[in-house]
# Entry
Amino acid sequence: MAGRFAPRTTAVPRRQAVVTGPYAPPLERTWTPPGPIDLRLVLGPLRRGPADPTYRALPDGSFWRATRTPAGPGTLRVSAAPGGQVSAVAWGPGAQWLLDGLPGLLGADDDPDAFRPRHRLVAVARQRRPGLRLLRTGLVMESLIPSVLEQKVTTDEAYRAWRLLVRTHGTPAPGPADGPFGTYGLYVMPDARTWSLIPSWEWHRAGVDAKRSATILRAVRVARRMEEAASMELPEAMARLELIPGIGPWTAAETLQRSNGAADAVTVGDLHLPGIVGYALAGNRSADDEEMLSLLAPYEGQRHRAARLIMLSGHIPPRRAPRMTPRDIARL
# Structure
């Protein structure tokens, strides 16, 4: 979210949790989903690697998320409650915004019943995952920036870059000082102005080349315009994001799947997805984007959901080619 929307805060020592204080107690909400819900499947797409500083899934079954809302930084804890309900607790200036958006985050705007399986494999995957719903955060930049970082690099490289940049330039998430996050804790990603002020050597230290960092800098300069895409229909939202040089269909789809809950935002230009879809639906592990789109055509309007169910089916081709080799940008 653009810097002008983020309230000024007193500097907080690094690696300490922000205490909301006695005059800002956490807010709570209990919500009853319209059907079965699997919090791990629903919230999982928000996780950018096992050490993502903005996301935690704990052994007690709770899921923690730190983000920058239009009302300011906020931390959200979500867990299953008796009777099929969901319990949520939120801290920080963005607490009320997060609780108001809880149903959308957990897929209340999604319509899984609109999906009609056309392949047995997809039907079985859907039957085995009745709690899958497509989340909607309503926030574009928090998904756009890590998606840009993931362009044409290994996932490990992208996750490392996101982790370093958020911990170095973000702020400790609001919440209890004795929270369950150990030494590093949760962090809220930087606001737009802070992203724009990151020096070139910090991008370099995080392993981010000039092309990706320049794309992020172009996006944060018009962060307000990017955030408007969260309320647009998919074609208009895709067009809005792709106005930024360096943001193409792959990045736009990866972003809008999360920010808009876009059931039809199929990811094209991916290194692995065409082969996975081709192998699952036609036995062709060498499928390209054109063949993938042809195979997904019966799911028009629900192609992203179909792709997720295919991934969850576990019916993916055995790896033959070597993994992408991480690049040393110091040599580029």
Summary: Residues 273-313 form one domain. The radius of gyration is 20 Å.
